[in-house]
Write a structure and sequence with these properties.
membrane, extended, mainly alpha, about 5% strand, two-stranded antiparallel ribbon
Length: about 160
């Protein structure tokens, strides 16, 4: 329902405002909680999880179980790789920040503890202090061709 415009003033200027009223839903038009949960599950997990019983029935228990374990392992490896790459990106940004501080001639007492103590590197150097997106990591670590391949692959998968 649209209400007619009303003339209001703001600091002496006339402004025409238009109010649009949203239609109300009857209680019969809403989904149940279970249907909402199924939609959310489908959105997060995808339709692949809903077809697993049919895949197990067609391929058999042995092959399906082996495939599922292999794909779970590959997913774990992929997540681990992304986390390690994000930690390396954080380390690069910390290194650049420390180089900037050193270039601006701040005295040694104002710097943080040294990053490298002997032959070991402290774990806080490779910590996840800052969220670095995949595109930002691609820009940081890949050349122009690699970035193009990354973005094309990302667009293809989406």
């Amino acid at each position: 329902m649209v209400h007619p415009p009303s003339n209001t003033t703001h600091k002496g200027n006339k402004i025409n405002t238009l109010y649009i009223k949203m239609p109300t839903l009857d209680s019969g038009d809403q989904y149940s909680v279970w249907v909402g949960l199924i939609y959310i599950f489908n959105l997060i997990v995808g339709t692949g999880a809903l077809t697993l019983p049919a895949a197990f029935a067609r391929a058999g228990w042995g092959l399906s179980t082996i495939s599922l374990v292999f794909l779970a392992f590959m997913s774990f490896m992929n997540a681990t790789y992304v986390i390690e790459t994000m930690a390396c990106a954080n380390a690069v940004y910390k290194w650049k920040r420390l180089q900037f501080i050193k270039r601006n001639s701040i005295s040694q007492c104002e710097l943080e503890d040294p990053l490298v103590c002997g032959d070991t590197i402290p774990s806080r150097y490779y910590s996840l202090d800052r969220r670095v997106e995949l595109g930002e990591m691609a820009n940081l670590f890949l050349c122009k061709t690699g970035r193009s391949v990354f973005y094309c692959t990302l667009c293809h998968l989406l």
